[in-house]
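Support case: user asked for a sample of complex input and structure output to validate their parser. Sending the pair below.
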Amino acid sequence: MIDLDPVLLARIQFAFTISFHIIFPAFTIGLSSYLAVLEWRWLSTGDGRFRDLYKFWIKIFAVCFGMGVVSGVVLSYQLGTNWSIFSDKVANVIGPLLAYEVLTAFFLEASFLGIMLFGWGRVSKKMHFASTCIVAAGTLMSAFWILSANSWMQTPQGFTLTPDGRAMPTNWIEVIFNPSFPYRLLHMVTAAYLTTAFVVGGVGAYYLWCKRHIKHARIMLGMATMMAAIIAPIQIFIGDSHGSNTLKYQPAKVAAIEAIWDTEKHAALRLFALPNQEEEKNNYEISIPGLASLILTHRADGEIKGLKEWKKEDRPPVAWVFWSFRVMVGLGILMAFLGIASGIQYFRSKLFESKWLHGCWVLMMPSGFIALLAGWFVTEIGRQPYTVYGVIRTSESVSPAILAPQVAWSLASFVVIYTLIFGAGSYYILKIIAKGVVLTKEKEHFRRGIESAVTNAISKEGK
Amino acid sequence: MFDFSTYIDLPLVWGVIIATAILLYVLLDGFDLGIGILFPLAPSDKCRDKMMNSIAPFWDGNETWLVLGGGGLFAAFPLAYSIIMPAFYIPIIIMLLGLIMRGVAFEFRFKANRSRKLWDLAFHFGSLGATFCQGLIIGSFVQGIKIDGRNFSGGPFDWATGFSVMTGIALVFGYALLGSTWLIMKTDDITRDWARKIASYVLFFVGIFMVLVSFSMPFIDPRIQKFWFSLPNFYYLMPIPITTAILFVLLWVDLRKKTRDYRPFLTSLGIFLMGYTGLGLSIFPWIIPFEYTIWDAATAGPGLSLMLVGVVPALPLILGYTAYCYYTFRGKTSHESMY
């Protein structure tokens, strides 16, 4: 039998389940806020198009939220099954943060989601709007706590180690507001909003492209353009600040991002390279001299530490980090570019007629998801070989009793099941989009006539 | 840094909080898993739509108690968490996969045309598998876990025992009872009549299993035997089996008479509460039975104190708005898809 390394398998399993999971919360963070704005516009203007759009997006929201919940439950148990030593060592510090996430966010979201989805006509309009806002606030609260816990693992502080290697908190404020947390929170929430903006805009552009629901599509594309034109450039700025923060606290990660092996001033920005971890050099390198120093330190002669400053076994896998970063930044720039271009077209009153622009929006629909995943790859792989940076190594975190076959078959079942539900979920979402926005009179939203109930019953009985 | 450990017995308080979270999980997700278990037995597709609609607004919140149970164990009793999770690796993974399948079925089922049957099956087998694994884990947990220092040291199949398989099956019937009595409360016509029939059938098995489990518990460890049968404990504990017996009779009569819609569900909740209390008292104060107590396994004072500050206002608030949601969707359910 092939000798599989349980640590590597456990890492792959966690990477797989968490990558799958993050797609949904990221999208639902943005979408719940978008739904809140739609409902607010409807209530304040009385324009039925906003209500139709709300009804349309909430179906997609429900599918994504469901998948986010079920894939999230897995994570809260996987920490224990595969990473029991890690759990035992850090629970004193990050356990309370996760508990706060459940108490202040999960219950709020899950309970009011029911009212949001099924409460039409059962609660007042105001109460319904309040539920939407509560769900949106819940998703943000959840992001706050989970990113605080994640950031603590990146830049740990406010704790001491016991003789048996367990972390004990000494200052909660320092733990929660650790150095990388504000940057990571802003960067992630903005990314979530951008991801949603590009999906909403893409759907709007698609309808404009095939000349369906023109009036609704204009709202979608218009709102998405507004978001993208303002937020995408801001995101580049936030990302830059996040990078400077990483340079200060996790210089090895930055060295891997830029694939810099020897410490240098006037460091060049590698546009293309195939980093070679064994020989400690880059193959086929194309670079712009001096630019990396300028971007990272905001000075032309800024010094950037090279990977050789760290022992071989303390370096992250360079190629992964290097390439993921380039995918993220490349897409980020494209998103900003499309946002600004659409903004300009909007002011020239040509946004809703430029066919090529609509095509670009449709193509860019998945860009937010890809950039988001790439960004997480950068930050998580860049932290290796540690789970808690500089404190606990990944190889010392894994459960002692787990066996490779156990991890392997559970990984295989996750892959099979996730692929199945991801495929089905995407299919149903595409079906909802293909079916289009359903136009209804307001009355029907709040009172289903006996008539419709009877016809519905008969038609189902007939089957 | 604040720390209440000098004023309050924090591990005990947290033991009670976690036990309450798990109890609420068992009661709340119990009825919606039970509906999944009974799903294929329903008389028609329209009934199935009704069954699904009756729990659609709630299942998500119900499942969050499981996250609180797992997350709370991680946060408050990390030692127990890091022993229990690897020990029940396989049943936990199967339970999670089951919960995934049934969770997505809620959304997918109403959006599917041709593949609806497939999601019905996913809903049923997901619920069944998750329930069986939960029962299995409880049973084998009570029997004890092999440990070495702060780690699990047994084999991957240690959980497979005759007793744990029995508790697995017992829980399937238990949840089916909660599910069927929930349906008596939330539906009418043929669905309700069918639910009544199923409930009386299931009740019989629940009774048998409760007796079996109750009588085998004292044989697992002499400490449990001593706890129940020494004097004066025996007198103090007698109300538990007596109340359980009364609730059984009450439920049986209600199911026969067919006049009460709400009481059967409340009675089944009572039966579960009694069973859970009995089990909880037997294990107390062990969190890894007969190896570690809650005081051995607890997080240090500052962590428990910080969480207590959060949980004291949050838990009543959560219970409050959960109750509000149940109140909002009170009454009988229709079979139409609602959004």
